[in-house]
Amino acid sequence: MPTELPVDMLNRPLLEIVFRRKNNALFKKLARKTHFNVKEVEALAVIHRKITQTLDPMTRSVFRDILHSGLDFTENIRHLYIDRIFSVFDKKNVLQIPLEQWIEGLSIILRGNLNERIHFAFSIYDFMHTNKLKKEQIFPTMRGCLIKLQTDEDPDEAVKDLIDSLLKKLDVDRDGVISEDEFHRAVKERNLLLLECMGPVFPSRVARRTFLSTFTDRLGQF
């Protein structure tokens, strides 16, 4: 999505006006549920409308392109985390991102409070939906995110060592798995950097501010 184009520049301004008026009640509801005001919700709805009009439904592949170009997500092996972010956005499991889920998801990754971000990150890492992170399910995700070592050291062994170190920090009750409560407590009480300890799931501060600046002047300290 080219950032140089004004987000409200539609080919048919009259249709845009109709779209805004028709969905005004929905925009107000989303403003109450998210960290966006009504004008920001409206602007994001216009972005979603433009994307779906140009590229058809916001499917997984379209979503990947948006995160790569619009939020500067670095591509990793098999798009693993981007695909997980798509799945978390896609609450109804319809294999595309409807308008409401688009705005609710962006609310968290752009302006979410710490509790929301912790829950979101854990949901990304918990791709087996067990509410617990086991060593064997952490390994393939972290392996895909690490830069290939430039030494004779076995990269798999390096990943295993890193996971062992993480378990020592996060697995409070030493049962061999990381629960969401343990993850939550570790991030809030020990180190905020643990929020993305298993791979990047949020856009960088620069990317967030750049994206926000395309439709609002409320950049803030998010």
UniProtKB/TrEMBL annotation:
The keyword Transcription regulation is annotated on this UniProt entry: no
Entry GO MF terms: calcium ion binding; kinase binding
Matches recorded under SUPFAM superfamilies: EF-hand (SSF47473)
Domain EF-hand: 158-193
Keywords: Calcium, Repeat
GO BP terms: calcium-mediated signaling
Cited Pfam families: EF-hand_7
Leader sequence residues: none
Domain of life (superkingdom): Eukaryota
InterPro entries: CNBL1-10 (IPR045198), EF-hand-dom_pair (IPR011992), EF_Hand_1_Ca_BS (IPR018247), EF_hand_dom (IPR002048)
PANTHER family, per the entry: CALCINEURIN B, CALMODULIN
The name this protein goes by in its record: EF-hand calcium-binding domain-containing protein 1-like
Organism: Pogonomyrmex barbatus (red harvester ant)
Highest classification ranks of the organism: Eukaryota, Metazoa, Ecdysozoa, Arthropoda, Hexapoda
